């Protein structure tokens, strides 16, 4: 079934729900990014998600639910802080990790004792989950390690022939993945900055621990390694130098970079465009006004455009680490060349 064969969205939802119930795999929109979903209770269907995405089995999937009431079926215990957070911020771009009930298959959580749970705010996503009548296990609908899809076309181009259906819900309104908070330890921990600002979360439950990259490996195995990667090498640059130019370095100086595509927050974040190296042939500003929410929403599409622009390298200037800036910098540092990811850690 292809994108245009079904036009009416409700028909698409019903058709997709049938496919999910029969053990199929469907790509669907959420407010963050498109998901690649299967019935979370059907281990075989979930295995197909891993296959289609070429994702290693050690990297667990988020369970998407339609109503808060479903939590009790999946989680053994919902600590008071988690309950307050969910009451305040669901539905939306927030995932919580809670101790799982045995009904959640081990393949979904990669054998971890916690299940990641999220109630999306996107009406199509919730309509689909409700119509399927089961939680939907879904990673982002891209091949493992590559840039997440924020439009149905992105999914079609990469996975169109491998999935049973793609629901076209237009562009994602948040455009960056959910924030993940784990309640498996003594204190709530931020496993991934995302579409809900850390400040918003801390306003509800107080201080959230930020694990180091090393600690993350055990708590959220999929958070290690290069991710969100463009096929063009992406270089994260340190900042703006004293004379207003941008220092762009290359990990391999023997290979000079002739053409660079630059990602910057806004025109104001590049103080003197005239001082840019002449190799910079293309600039993607994420937000004309420097709005971090808009910038987060436009980040992945900008990365895709530069990837298709025929440049030798993509260089990205870090953005302020406040609000959704934390998620933007996280994605940029993980998209960067392997040797460079070790350095940037979330600091505050
Ligand atoms: O916004 C989102 O979260 C999107 C949409 C589709 O909902 N989903 C998404 O899924 O980004 P994915 O699989 O691309 O990223 C989920 C991250 C991975 O880093 C994974 O390791 C972590 O969440 N994760 C999933 N289940 C977990 C668990 N039980 N414990 C710890 N980390 C978990
Ligand atoms: Mg992903």
Description of the molecule:
- With 348 residues, the chain is an alpha/beta fold.
- It folds into two domains: 3-216, Alpha-Beta Complex (DHBP synthase); 234-335, 3-Layer(aba) Sandwich (Rossmann fold), CATH 3.40.50.
- The protein has twelve helices and 13 strands.
- The protein has helices spanning 9-21, 43-53, 71-74, 80-89, 106-109, 123-132, 152-159, 198-205, 213-219, 292-307, 325-335, 338-341, and strands at residues 26-28, 35-39, 62-64, 94-99, 114-118, 136-138, 165-166, 179-182, 189-192, 234-236, 260-264, 280-285, 313-316.
- A hairpin with a 6-residue loop joins strand 1 and strand 2 (35-39).
- The longest helix is centred in the last third of the chain and has 16 residues, at 292-307.
- The protein is globular, with a radius of gyration of 20 Å.
- The N and C termini lie far apart (47 Å).
Proportion of residues in β-strands: 15-25%
Number of strands: 13
Taking Cα atoms only, what radius of gyration do you get, to the nearest Å? 20 Å
Reported by name, the CATH topology of the largest domain is DHBP synthase
Q: Unreliable segments (pLDDT under 50, ≥5 consecutive)?
A: 338-348
Task: Please identify, by name, the CATH architecture of the largest domain.
Answer: Alpha-Beta Complex
Bound molecules: threonylcarbamoyladenylate, magnesium ion
Number of domain modules: 2
Question: Which sequence of SSEs, written as H and E, runs from N to C?
Answer: HEEHEHHEHEHEHEEEHHEEEHEHH
The first-level CATH class of the largest domain is given as: Alpha Beta
Number of helices: 12
Largest sheet: 9 strands, mixed
Distance between the termini: 47 Å
Structural class: alpha/beta
CATH H-level superfamily of the largest domain: DHBP synthase
- Rough outline: globular
Fraction of residues in H or I helices: 25-40%
């Amino acid at each position: 079934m292809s994108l245009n064969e079904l036009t009416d969205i409700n028909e698409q939802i019903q058709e997709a729900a049938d496919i999910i119930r029969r053990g199929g795999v469907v790509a669907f929109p959420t407010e963050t990014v498109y998901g690649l979903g299967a019935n979370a209770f059907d281990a075989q269907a979930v295995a197909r998600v891993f296959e289609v995405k070429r994702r290693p089995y050690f990297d667990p999937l988020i369970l998407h639910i339609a109503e808060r009431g479903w939590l009790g079926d999946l989680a053994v215990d919902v600590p008071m802080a988690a309950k307050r957070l969910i009451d305040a911020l669901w539905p939306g771009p927030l995932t919580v990790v809670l101790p799982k009930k045995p009904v959640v298959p081990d393949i979904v959580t990669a054998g971890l004792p916690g299940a990641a749970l999220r109630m999306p705010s996107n009406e199509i996503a919730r309509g689909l989950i409700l119509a399927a009548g089961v939680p939907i296990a879904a990673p982002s609908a891209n091949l493992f390690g590559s840039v997440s899809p924020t439009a149905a076309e992105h999914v079609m181009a990469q996975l169109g022939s491998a999935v049973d259906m793609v629901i076209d819900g237009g562009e994602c309104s948040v455009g960056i993945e959910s924030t993940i908070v784990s309640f498996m330890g003594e204190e709530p921990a931020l496993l991934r900055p995302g579409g809900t600002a850390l400040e918003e979360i801390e306003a509800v439950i107080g201080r959230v621990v930020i694990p180091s990259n090393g600690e993350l490996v055990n708590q959220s195995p999929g958070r290690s390694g290069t991710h969100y990667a463009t096929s063009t090498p992406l270089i994260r640059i340190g900042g703006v130098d004293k004379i207003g130019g941008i220092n762009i370095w290359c990990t391999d100086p023997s290979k000079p970079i002739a053409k660079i595509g630059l990602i910057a927050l806004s025109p104001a974040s590049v103080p003197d465009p005239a001082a840019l190296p002449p190799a910079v042939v293309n600039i993607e500003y994420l937000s004309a006004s420097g709005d971090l929410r808009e910038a987060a929403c436009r980040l992945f599409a900008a990365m895709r455009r530069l990837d298709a622009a025929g440049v030798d390298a993509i260089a990205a200037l870090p953005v302020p680490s406040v609000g959704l800036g934390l998620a933007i910098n996280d994605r940029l540092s993980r998209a960067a060349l392997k040797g460079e990811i070790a350095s940037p850690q979330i600091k505050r």
